[in-house]
Structures are given as C-alpha cells and as structure tokens.
Design brief:
alpha+beta, five-stranded mixed beta sheet, single chain, two-stranded antiparallel ribbon
Length: 121
Amino acid sequence: MSQSLHIVRPNLTNAFGSLSTAPINVTLQAPALFQLLEFALRAEADSRVIGTLLGTRSDDGSEIEIKDAYIVPHHEEGDEVTIEEYQHRSLYQLHKRANPKDSILGWFSSNPTVDSFTALV
C-alpha cells in the first residue's frame, strides 16, 4: 500500500533575492505517525482519506516538525470534491487553542497517486 504525503514549502528568498533551494529537514513525531497509519489502515479500499498535517516550521522554511494530523471530511461525486470546510476550520481552531504555535503544514491522502482530486486539495 503506497500513500501520498505533500508538505507545502513557502517561497522564501535568500539574502541575494533568489528563491531558497535549501533542503528540508522533516521531523515526524510519533503521535502524528501513528495517526497517519491508523487513518490509512482504516480507509476502505474504494475510498480516499484526506487530511491536514499540523506542526511548526522554522523561520527559513528548512525545518518542519509534524506534530499532529486530522481527517478532513469530504465527498467525491463524479468530477467534484466537496470538503466539509466548517468542520475543517473547527478542528483547526480546537487544535490551535491547545497548540498556539502550530500551523497547517500540508496535507495527506490515502490515494496512491496524485490525481486531479488530490490537486484540488
């Protein structure tokens, strides 16, 4: 079973005004790893699980620490994906109360390929 994981890297400029191409050091804390594994293992064979990755990022964007993750409820029908935005915002706000320094780092999907639905997220 292969999985997709995407982490958004901000466009940062270095001292010379060009975009930074420094490598990223990603740390995945155990609670987040176990959550991702549980989400993927519980996913039904014919359905996709998508969700949000939360944690901290260094000022220069070269270090990311993934601390938590949650599922984003959604519906796929034909060529459309509808995300339960209200529930997504509520989950993020609850997480932010307990972890004020954390932010959204990216997303995950239990789909083995990056397709048009994945790109929408």
